[in-house]
Write the structure tokens for this entry.
Amino acid sequence: MEKKNVSSRLSQYFIYIIFVALVIVLTILKPSFIQPGNLVNILKQASINGILAFGMMFVIIAGGFDMSVGSTVAFAGILAALLGRGNFPLIVPFLVALLAGLAVGILNGIGVAVGDLPPFIMTLGTMTAVRGLALLVSNGKPVTGITKAYRKIAASSVAGIPMLAIFLVIVIIICSFVLAKTVYGRRVYACGGNLQAAKVAGINTTFIRVSTFAIAGLLAGLSGFLMTSRVTIGQPTAAESYEMDAITACVVGGVSMSGGVGHPVGVIIGTLLITVIANGLDILGVSSHWQKIVKGVIIVVAVLIDVKGKSKKD
Amino acid sequence: MKKNKLVAMLTVGALSVATLAGCGSASSGSSSENTTGTSAAASTAGSGSEAVASGSGTVTSSSGLGLAAGSGKGVKVAMIQQHQTNAFQIAVSEAAQKKADELGVDLTILSADQDAAKQISEIEQCVSEKYDAILFEPVDPDGLGAAAQEAADAGVKVINIISACTDWQDYGISALSCGDNVAAGELEMEQVAKKLNGKGNIAILTGPSGDSGGLQRMEGYENVLKKYPDIKQVVEPADCQWDTAQAQSTVESWLSAYDLDAIVAENDGMAVGAGNAAGANSGIVITGVDGTPDGFEAIEDGRMTGTVSQNGGQMASNAIEAAVKLVKGDKLDNNEILTSCTWIDSGNVANFK
């Protein structure tokens, strides 16, 4: 009995232990890692992936999967850049980016929940097509000339905290509240836990599933808007494979790929872990090829411990 | 079920309308044709650009091969690009089309989307559709030889553009029109060394490991660095996949841990990212290669120091002219047409926009 508890505890807190250990090791190897300037870097670098990971969290908990968010970031970012060159007030590119993301998300949701396509296939299709749209709209070139005011959004900070991180915190607060405290949130878990049972219980599962994809799309649109501000150009090839980082943050943070399980705090730690690996290895001057290896190992080990912990509980 | 499909199709339709609306404003972006102002730029470039111009047995051309307008009537040419997803490649398509229109050439432009297998199929397709000449930029320097040979055997004039196939002469390829990535790397690093007075800490941002263009630029960097023992690389070169956002994160991290005097990037996209991380007029020398609109913008507002333009458009238009000559049965003065590269900084960037 006691042994079971230990192993399930371990699986629950494994990711926190890894995270703290990594921070300690990096600080010892390179004290500048823990300097305020670099902590600000980490916040900035975590923001866009964090926002995407929170959208992905809804989709995965509801039993889905979204491959298209990277392409959506690029598409929304291109639209925002085209509209953010001074011809319109900033609210226009902001809203258009959100709406473009939302449209892709709803399309994904309809394909999966109404058309009954496997999420992987549906979002693989939109991933490819939306990347094509981004290239088409931008004519394959980076979109330059966004206004100073637009650039300032990502470059500015409030009381030392970068604006990007403030966006992330707002997203975290809203998403965590919706998921943990509302009826809607509980229904998302129910859909992912057992779709048939949820249907029988009278939940409008079609609506719930479409809406989770819509949330992921909306947040991808927001990320696209912020991404353009951060890199100061709209790039059709931007955010390549960002969906993988978002999925990694979820999975490492304890969101189960089979749906129905996952907590926002885990996703926050998952996001920070990925960012700290990249930032730490950059600071150490280690080849970026190692980042891929380290990330890959952590994904597999995290899920392995998660699965082992669960099978012992049963 | 039918109803569901209809909904899906309507949504797709709505998305494409949004696309069309965006297109109008996109095409007004700057084009990067760099044929004018080359001589003025070359004089500011110093020793690096001269080294490019003096290849033995090759022709350095920035004014074309001198064919009369309309002389390419009835010639059917296909150009197969590596991909069409950045400003450099779009400049190549635009310049090729412009030259083709001028000469009256019937030009078809295809993209291999970075896929060597797709490029081989496209070459085969062009042969069976009886094109007179095929221009192609190999996705892989070693993988396209056999396909080129087959096309040449079928009587099509094959011209290798932008980056050379390994041992291209051995595969029936009639001409090569390209730049020189090693020279571009040398020119970039020479400029950095000059700005640093031969002494300082530098870091390098590279494209994807194994990319031949990137490796050649790196070779150019190393050639120059040998001459300057006091210029030190304080971190390993970082592979940032040509990506602005990734370069920006990497450089932000570097700047909190290292004291850098210069950041040397293998393309403009990554140099822009480095410039964003360092901020405008940071005192850090930041350079790139390509001469793309985002790079020019960063040079103008002080985030970037300068860039090396490879004049991809010139390579394409030279190749079109070479194709017309060859199809008409004329000989080329030289079958290796090199386009020189130019250094662009705040002093001359206005000429290139």
